[in-house]
Amino acid sequence: MNLFSIVTILVVITAIFAYLNTRFLKLPETIGMMIIALLFSVLLIVSGLIFPVVYDFAISFIGSIDFSTVLLDIMLSFLLYAGALHTDGSLLKANRRSITVFAIVGVLLSALLVAVMLYLFFLAVQAPVNFWYCLLFGAFVAPTDPIAVLGILTKAGAPKDVEMKIVGESLFNDGIGVVLFLSLLEIINLGTDKVTIGDISLLLLTEIGGGILLGWLLGYVGYWMMKKIDHYQSEILITLAIVMGGYALAQLLHLSGPLAMVFAGLVTGSRSKEDAMSDVTEQYVYKFWELVDVLLNAVLFVLIGLEVLTLEFDLSYLIAGLVAIPITLIARYVSLLLPATAFKKYIQTSHNTIKIMTWGGLRGGLSIAMALSLTAPLPKNQFVFMIYVVVLFSIIVQGLTVGKVIRKLV
């Protein structure tokens, strides 16, 4: 099936699901779209017993989409840039200390805690898994997904400072999580005995620091160009060039593309908005990226729902996935509480805020994409199924109840 046919079918399906959600379910877009896609997938599985040709076509169609490449190499750059663009720079600056601590220390600590608990679980059920593999799983679930968070929190009624802590942390820990995942993957592929702590530190510093620097440079180049003109069509093209060209450049230089997009979006949303854009340009640029954000989010969560067709079911995978849910939540809570306690003089985060951040830290397509990118001898099928269980619980259960949790704790 050619690319145009795949995109056409996806857009048509997404449009129908969007209509059904808006007309009947009236749920937050990300949750509603995924639930409808899941129900549609179940319907396809059931109908396949009567009409095998329909099920075979659906499997062929979903199998022709490389979810990992589509999200990590294409959609992620646009979604992160759009999310950062619409982030309130003044609130982000006010919460920068807590966001930095949670995005870096929190992700690393969460990944380690998940790995330890999961490793002990597999030992307890006499199905041991290599600790480095468990650490890789920890890297999947440690970062909260800004794509899921941004689409739900805006309607949850969280106080602005709490919302900014969650959204800001999600934007940055996303980049940290991808770097951690890629670093661990390289260590496993090269052999743990051939990589030193110095090598790991240098790799992390280069990826993270280089990505941040590249993002600032891209943002300021775009700012300089937009300041010289007042033509909203050209300025929208400049922002597109920042995202597409900047992400490709980051990959070429082996820097963190996600972090580059976040910082480029922040510069565009603050410096360029204040000094380089006219009111007309600002309106068009923001509406354009809002539309991009909505469209790609819709397609992404439809894909997440349809991916259930490709899962390899195994009861042991399901049990492990269900166990991974509380493990992930416990690790998330502890990885926020410990840094908040250790740095309480600097970040001033209340215990109730920690609870909200724990429950409001959703996992989404990014975790699934990282798991799908695994290759043998890593336990890809098992980890993909486990991640899928965690993501479904996160988006549906946590996503639908986070508003109630916020209203109870605030």
Question: Which descriptors would you attach to this protein?
Answer:
mainly alpha; Na+/H+ antiporter like fold; 2 domains; 18 helices
CATH topology of the largest domain: Na+/H+ antiporter like fold
The topology string of helices and strands comes to HHHHHHHHHHHHHHHHHH
Largest pleated sheet: none
Radius of gyration: 21 Å
The percent range for helix content is over 70%
Structural class: mainly alpha
- The unreliable regions are none
Straight-line N-to-C gap: 51 Å
Number of helices: 18
The CATH class assignment of the largest domain is Mainly Alpha
**For the residues shown, what is the average pLDDT?**
90
Task: Describe what you observe in this structure.
The protein has helices spanning 3-25, 29-47, 52-63, 67-85, 89-94, 96-124, 131-141, 146-153, 160-190, 197-227, 232-252, 257-275, 279-306, 315-342, 344-347, 351-360, 365-372, 380-409. The chain has 410 residues and is mainly α. The chain folds into 2 domains: 3-63, no CATH class; 67-409, Na+/H+ antiporter like fold. α4 (67-85) packs parallel to α12, α4 (67-85) runs antiparallel to α13 and α9 (160-190) packs antiparallel against α12 (257-275). The radius of gyration is 21 Å and the shape is globular. The mean pLDDT is 90.
